[in-house]
């Protein structure tokens, strides 16, 4: 990468970490979309994992008093089940498929019957969502709006949502790093300097968001979080459709 591109990525990481620090979501979705556009999928996944581990880890530290540990423990059980399955399958999807999966999952969660709506306090839901979200993480790089929608169903305040989800995401991205950095056949490596920039940028953006999150009301937090999920998810569906259309035209032209 050129110095200009590295600097631009650093600024993007600060901005996306700020967004995630504010709402506990969406920043990682935006970042992985950019990384997938400029890097091979395994390399994008490894860099994204480093960035998100730093962002979520620092966010969990800042809000550690608000972490709900029961949902975290149950979610990790689901993550372990998914890793075991994907370590056997070792499936790496094409970019259009990955983007489409990112986009449709939050809408699927919203269409569930009332009795099945997301509830992080439910043990069986936590295990199921953990398994599905970790599967999405290993296919697309993020568990995306699905995990965001899951935690918005909680009767937690905004600080607990941000802190608990961040703790879950540290484990998720560590699992992704292990998978794309060592388990799959086309495992990727990462420049240590770029990794250090990613960590520093993520911690800076997360820190800057803290005071603004404290000043928000619960209604403002949930309203804007849902709007951001909808916009980002819709964008990925449209982008995936565009890539699939281009691929079909290319095949037809041959």
Automatic annotation (TrEMBL):
Cellular location(s): Cell membrane; Membrane
A Pfam cross-reference name: TauE
InterPro entries, per database record: TM_pro_TauE-like (IPR002781)
Record protein name field: Probable membrane transporter protein
TM helices/strands, residue ranges: 29-51, 72-91, 97-116, 128-147, 193-213, 225-247
Species: Bradyrhizobium denitrificans
Mode of membrane association: Multi-pass membrane protein
Family listed: Belongs to the 4-toluene sulfonate uptake permease (TSUP) (TC 2.A.102) family.
Principal localisation: membrane
Assigned keywords, A-Z: Cell membrane, Membrane, Transmembrane, Transmembrane helix
């Amino acid at each position: 990468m050129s110095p200009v591109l590295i600097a631009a990525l650093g600024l993007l990481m600060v901005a996306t970490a700020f967004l995630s620090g504010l709402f506990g979501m969406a920043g990682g979705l935006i970042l992985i979309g950019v990384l997938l556009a400029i890097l091979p999928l395994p390399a994008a996944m490894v860099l994204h994992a480093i960035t998100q581990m730093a962002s979520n880890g620092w966010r969990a530290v800042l809000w550690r008093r608000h972490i709900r540990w029961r949902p975290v423990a149950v979610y990790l059980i689901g993550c372990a089940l998914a890793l075991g399955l994907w370590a056997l399958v070792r499936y790496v999807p094409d970019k259009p498929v990955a983007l489409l999966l990112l986009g449709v999952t939050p809408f699927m969660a919203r269409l569930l019957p009332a009795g099945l709506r997301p509830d992080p306090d439910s043990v069986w839901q936590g295990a199921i969502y953990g398994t599905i979200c970790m599967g999405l993480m290993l296919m697309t790089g993020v568990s995306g709006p699905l995990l965001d929608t899951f935690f918005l169903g909680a009767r937690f305040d905004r600080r607990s949502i941000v802190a608990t989800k961040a703790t879950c995401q540290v484990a998720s991205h560590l699992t992704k790093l292990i998978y794309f950095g060592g388990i799959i056949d086309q495992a990727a490596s990462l420049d240590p300097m770029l990794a250090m920039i990613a960590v520093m940028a993520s911690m800076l953006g997360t820190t800057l968001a803290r005071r603004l999150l404290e000043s928000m009301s619960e209604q403002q937090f949930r309203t804007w979080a849902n709007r951001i999920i909808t916009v980002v998810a819709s964008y990925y569906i449209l982008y995936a459709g565009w890539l699939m259309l281009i691929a079909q035209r290319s095949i037809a032209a041959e």
